[in-house]
Amino acid sequence: MTIANDRNGSAKLRCVLDNMKKVIIGKEEAAVLCLTALLAKGHVLLEDVPGVGKTMLIRTLARSIGGKFNRIQFTPDLLPSDITGVSVYNPKSLEFEFHKGPIFGNVILADEINRTSPKTQSSLLEAMEEGSVTVDGQTWRLQSPFFVMATQNPIEHEGTYPLPEAQLDRFILKLRMGYPDHDAEIVMLENQSQGNPLAEIETVLDAADLVLMQHEAKEVHVERSILDLIVSWAQATRNDPSIELGISPRGTLALMNAAKAYAYIAGRDYVLPDDVKYLAPHVLSHRLILAPEARYARKSADEVLKGIIHSIDIPIVRNSYHEA
């Protein structure tokens, strides 16, 4: 994917991606998708084995945008107040004072989110959906931009709590990085032998610029035929006998917003059918719950969704929408 030079802010976005490429070698697709989620005001669930660079990816993104980075290590004994904060009585003022938790930041790494209890997992729901936290009846607004990247290990299941559907639905994208190829891993070893490349990353985009870009990405045009395609996919999942729970309206909205952000990164002010087709597996698959028969047949949500996507004709969009 290339970034156009004539789009407002595209040079800064390219600098962010270049920063991420310096640290995470051979994983530009993951970098672009993370930036897509950030511009769409969404959050990312990154599921992969340990050691492939999940933490480095999010730390590089945080440093590139100059945001406040907080890491929350999820453990079985973690409490909701350890995330959101707690009110502490001050004997001098004779009042309770709210001490903010690590959720009050710009870029939050929720590391191994499936290792904590469902009660603690649910403490993130309000923050991720509404950008606020309610403690003791008082609501606190979170800083903008606000971006959560949660990680989980798909291999190790002992002592874990699978994320409920309501929690999964709050992530606009679910990604897998995978191992680097042979040449990329050699380059990574060479870079690491000279020191930590993360230490050389400089801020190239401030919070105010990023918030402006989020607003601009929201204005990207989507043809009605593409909206019809998105809804047709969603309705097909709701009627497919191999799917127990199909795509909700939140899922279709997530795909539309992700496509707008993806087009914005590409330097366009309009969405192409290829944008939604490419993003659909990343945005929709984790929202599907397969019927028992499909799981027994060892089908995956990705396979079922791919079949639905291929069964519906992609519209030909003769775009007539241009910037003035």
UniProtKB/TrEMBL annotation:
Taxonomic superkingdom: Bacteria
Residue ranges of domain ChlI/MoxR AAA lid in the record: 235-306
SUPFAM superfamilies on file: P-loop containing nucleoside triphosphate hydrolases
Record domain ATPase AAA-3: where: 43-173
Protein's name in the database: MoxR family ATPase
Organism: Aciduricibacillus chroicocephali
